[in-house]
Amino acid sequence: MIVDDAAGVLTWPGCRNVRDLGGTPTTDGRRIRHGALLRSDRLTPADVPAARAAGVSRIVDLRWARECERDPSPFASDPVYRNAPLLADPLGYNPPEDSYGPMLDHNAERMAVAVRLVADAPPGAVLVHCHAGRDRTGVLVALLLGLAGVGPAEIAADFARTEGCGPLPMRNTLTHLDAHYGGSAGYLTAAGLDPALLAAVRSRLLPRAGPPGQAGPRQNTTST
């Protein structure tokens, strides 16, 4: 069964951290469209029907290749699937506990690859995930939401909805992003992405029509 509640949380059989970012407010009064961007932890075969029912047209798996070899995605042979490791392997730095700033600093090209996969995905929902759906997924989602005009407080609040997370590391990360790169657009432009691709992300995530503040009705779906 798949249940989409008021907080965007989805109940998928094998996932602990899966949700729809639809309804997240932007600073100009709009909201992220429902069914445009989903985030999760690793997928299992039991989650395949749920992902199909959600209209997922692209899955961006942010795990290292060795993780995927050890624990293959159930979508590995499906055209919707892309593996785009978000981090160098090995890392090459010691990650602090209170910020993902170094993750941004050391992996800009990889971040750009993942964002490009979101931008050029076929019509439908894009699902991004890593192993736990927390660190790598959280940083990529923060960049995507920032491009769409979601403010730092809302991005940090979404991050804190993930199991085992609090808002402070994301707040610190966004402060670093603004101070060193001028925000998501500046960071990704410096990483080599064309402004047209950034615009494509915004177009995918934001409402196509309707008055400000409307993201469309939230869908309650059930699949067995």
UniProtKB/TrEMBL annotation:
Residue intervals of the Tyrosine specific protein phosphatases domain: 109-145
Classification via Pfam families: Y_phosphatase3 (PF13350)
Top-rank taxon: Bacteria
Family statement: Belongs to the protein-tyrosine phosphatase family.
Protein's recorded name: Tyrosine-protein phosphatase
Species this chain originates from: Micromonospora thermarum
